[in-house]
Amino acid sequence: MRTDTRLSRMLHVLIHMDRHQQSVTSDTLAQMLGTNPVVVRRTMALLKEQGYVTSEKGHRGGWALSKPLSEMTLLDIHQALGSSSIFSIGLSTDHPQCLVEQAVNAALTEAFDEAQALLLKRLGSITLAQLADDFDQRFHGVTGD
């Protein structure tokens, strides 16, 4: 089963955009991500709808941040991308009358709900600025600056 990497990839993109402090084209982002510019435009449009990025058309156009990283959390970006399911584990509903299936599904649903609430709370507590600071520390550790 393929995993949904949109959150990770968009966090990556947004931090790069902040560090380069200039607009970037869908073609450039597509090249960086190894995907199609149409996929980039579609995904970035979701972030634009929520006010995290802007876009300009034309020769000097491209995508730019519309908020500082300190005003964006991982949860914000997750939700802007459509809040895909956190877990790929699903419940069996082949035999809804089966009491064993009901017991299993009740236990799994409770566990999934608790785990998802904890994860979403954690995502809401981390800003993109914190990720960018972590990058800066790693970069300076590697370069010795």
Quick summary:
This is Rrf2 family transcriptional regulator. It holds the Pfam family Rrf2. This protein is mostly helical.
Beta-strand percentage? Answer: 5-15%
Question: pLDDT under 50 segments (min length 5)?
Answer: none
For the secondary structure, the number of strands is 2
General form: elongated
Please give the count of helices. Answer: 6
The spatial strand order of the largest sheet comes to 1-2
Organism: Pseudomonas citrulli
InterPro entries: Tscrpt_reg_Rrf2, WH-like_DNA-bd_sf, WH_DNA-bd_sf
Protein name: Rrf2 family transcriptional regulator
Pfam families: Rrf2
Architecture blueprint of SSEs:
Elements: H1 6-20, H2 26-33, H3 37-49, E1 53-56, E2 62-65, H4 74-80, H5 99-124, H6 128-143
Antiparallel strand pairs: 1-2
Helix pairs in contact: 1-6, 2-3
Describe this structure in words.
The chain is elongated, with a radius of gyration of 19 Å. It is mainly alpha-helical and 145 residues long. A two-stranded antiparallel ribbon has the order 1-2. The longest helix has 26 residues, at 99-124. It has six helices and two strands, in the order αααββααα.
Which characteristics define this entry?
WH-like_DNA-bd_sf; 145 residues; 59% helix; mainly alpha; Rrf2 family transcriptional regulator; two-stranded antiparallel sheet; 6 helices
